[in-house]
Amino acid sequence: MAGVGVVKGIRSGRRRSRLPEQAGLRRLGPGLRVASYSQNMHFGPKPLLPDPGAFPDEEALAEFVLTKMETWFHVDEQVHGRYWTGEQTRIDAVLRPRDPDGWHDVNPAFAVEFKTAKPSSVGAGYGWVAQAVAYTHCDWDGYGVLPVFLCPSPITSILSRADEVAYYRQRQISPELLEAEREKLRRKGRRFGRDYTESLVDSQALIAHRQRIGQLSYEEFTARADGYANAAAREREHNLRVAEELTHVLGQLSVGELMPYKHTGWALRRSGRWLWSERDGPVKVPYRLRPRIGSERRTPEASPEPGSVGHFEG
């Protein structure tokens, strides 16, 4: 049974010294930046996001993060498991604290899944989340059932949408778009065998451009009427609420996030709460890693006995 056995495949990297309490951006690793949306919203801690192209694929991201994590955790990569249907699967890594003191599980361990590609659609992003939820029901070889932490957090793509929308809105009123509108009219004329004069092209393009600006102005007006500074601020507030709700729902489903944060360093969070950080270690509040069953609220004393599901020996 997966709950009994010796854990194999542990990485044997060198231990690295802890970062200072006020870990700086450069110390956390190359290519990391403070998420831009955090400067305009009250989402709490400011996560650090990799610069675009900093990691060419998931393997590079996993290598970078797991090398960091080896300071505090034993790392077992590419762990195999089984869905409740019997189908085989595997997850990127399972981590165990080198020093279990202070953790609130008898044998603390958790799984990590990495993803670098930006979701091509909203559905694709939620598909990754659904995969993580399914992983919490798997029986992992040598570990049993484990909580899953995503890296980077799935909410980062939700919160960054506001910046993307603001950029798109800015492009809608740019002179380049007016010229693009003219070129579209010229192509339309050639397609239907009509020779549009430049004066006609200019007038029609300007009408379309003004309509677009009018629509954007209306959105700005309604946003200010609702008490926001502008339409982008309203979009950010909406995305913030969506992200907060998603965070709490995923936490109830035993899915959290592994991310670096400004001043705090790398951290495990679930339902918006800290479980561990490289600056402070495991939190004193008795939050446990073990996946919840239904709406249960177990205490550390209610941990499973050795040999049961959710227990591992290593």
From TrEMBL:
<feature type="region of interest" description="Disordered">
    <location>
        <begin position="294"/>
        <end position="314"/>
    </location>
</feature>
<protein>
    <submittedName>
        <fullName>Uncharacterized protein</fullName>
    </submittedName>
</protein>
